[in-house]
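Hey, I was hoping to borrow your eyes for a little while. I'm sending you its amino acid sequence along with the backbone structure tokens. Take your time with it, there's no hurry, and the full record follows here.
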Amino acid sequence: MEDWAEVQRLFHREGLTRKAIARRLGMSRTTVIRLLALGEPPQYRRSGTGSQLDPYQAEIRAMLATDPTVAATVIRERLRRSGYAGGITILKQHLAAVRPEFLAARAFQRTSYLPGEIVQLDWWHTGVQVPVGKGQTRQAFGLVASLPHSGAHAVVFSLGTTMADFLAALPGCLARLGGVAEKAVCDNDASIVARREHGRARLHPEVAALFGALRLRPVVLRPRRPTSKGHVERTIEYLETSFLPLRSFADLAELQDQHDTWATDVAVRRHVRRKGRVAERWAVERRSLHPLPDPLPDTDLRLEARAAKDAFVRVLDVDYSVPPAFVGRRISAHVSTDTVRFFAEGSEIAVHRRSFVPADVVLAPAHGRAIRLAREARDRLTEGEPELPPVDLGRYDALFEVPA
């Protein structure tokens, strides 16, 4: 998945040839051609085999942390003292994969950036409790995206910080900023990173697919490196001191509306380190941002469940009704930020407004009537067959004049 995303970005965004991509990523040109031919991210990925470099991963990373530009020949010389007997080619391929992370960690500590060079991402734990219905409240979170060159920012609010929340929020942030930067700098967050292998971040397949569709290169910082995305950290501090005070919100939508209005009317008027107003620098930077794909990638969360005997399907701790004809069958749920749609064998069977009330029950009126009729029919069957009077067979004897 990550190979597909990087090949798409290098070809469509940086304009590299297939041969150049193969050389940079250490793969065959045939593989590059196959990945470019895929209009959508691959669904399956072959698991990697062990490498001669596995026992030396920590030592390699320690050398790169000291000098990210150190030559492969120097690293091989040091590794041979530790018992490494492999060749230079496999080492170069490995360095091509891991070195950019160390170079990025050093590069993104700069205080100035080119227009459209990077966007910094971080989750904002607002501490604000917003009503979600039925007397319940939940904390609001915001995915903050900032452009260090201009100082512009965008926030998309959610009621969680899961992978599904990130997938839904990122395109919204980029749309508000006016386009896609070259690189996205982010933390080693569980909503983005599935695991780390030998110190290298492995994205969730869905997240890697989204970055690939956006032609956006992810730069995942090593743990405990907040200074590498200092601009978004300062933006969150600015939001907490300048946006939140003296405000109240009826729901998440009102929180989003109030911030979007404030960001375009107030935040853009501030100055960025005596280099001009945010609005003026943002107008320049937008020309360097790449357009978002049209249509935007589908970021709905997809889940599978079985309809219970009472014709409800549980999705993220909430029970939603479906037609009783689908009781006991496998149902596919497509969950967005505001709706939950149910499908059976590819056909849509129900649509509900998404509820964020814990342990809520969402019942469509039509489903309620159908469930009641089905229950009444089932009750009649369980009551047993009606009793009929005995049949007098003598009537047939009289009819055919059979002697008694």
Q: What stands out?
A: Residues 2-107 form one domain.
